[in-house]
Amino acid sequence: MSDKLAGHFSEILSILGEDVTRGGLVDTPTRAAKAIQFLTDGYHKSIEEVVNGAIFEADTDEMVVVQDIEYYSLCEHHMLPFIGRCHIAYLPQGKVLGLSKFARIVDMYARRLQIQEGLTKQIANAVQKVTGAAGVGVIMEGKHMCMMMRGVQKQSSSMTTSVMLGSFRESNATRNEFLRLIGK
Ligand SMILES: Nc1nc2c(ncn2[C@@H]2O[C@H](COP(=O)(O)OP(=O)(O)OP(=O)(O)O)[C@@H](O)[C@H]2O)c(=O)[nH]1
Ligand SMILES: [Zn+2]
Q1: Is 146 annotated as a binding residue?
Q2: Is 87 among the annotated ligand-binding positions?
């Protein structure tokens, strides 16, 4: 796959008017191929692989919040980056998820072509599925390069998306506690 991608990147560079034989560009198609494969490697991962069995029995039903998980994704419309932070909360029911796995779940879905709304939902559903929690809340903030570097070229706007499942959807108090804990 890498060689095929590199060939296509070389062709794109030529079409853009570049001399693909000049010194600085000789290895660029190969580097670009590696980079795009890394940025989309979420397609080749599964939730089971990412969680790796790190679900632990724990006698707790109090809210757990993991906040400010940075993410880098690519918008499915322009294949340009959107980047930001993700905050995840859940109400466990006797099972907790290993802390690092929240970031791994975020990365697995972020490293695919996405819209922010869909990314938020996929993360929430995955956390719900692996923890069996009474409720899950996910809030994502993102800045979209397709809106900053091109198009309307607005540098200050950002997008906030949220998905509330179970008790986070049903109870204002639970949702508000989440928002308070992340300082919103
Ligand atoms: N809702 C949502 N929209 C997104 C996201 N990423 C990019 N977009 C938008 O997708 C839309 C695509 O619109 P089109 O009119 O088909 O494409 P375009 O001509 O390149 O649009 P402009 O960006 O307005 O120049 C744009 O409004 C983008 O801002 C996202 O994560 N969520
Ligand atoms: Zn875009």
Answers
A1: yes
A2: no
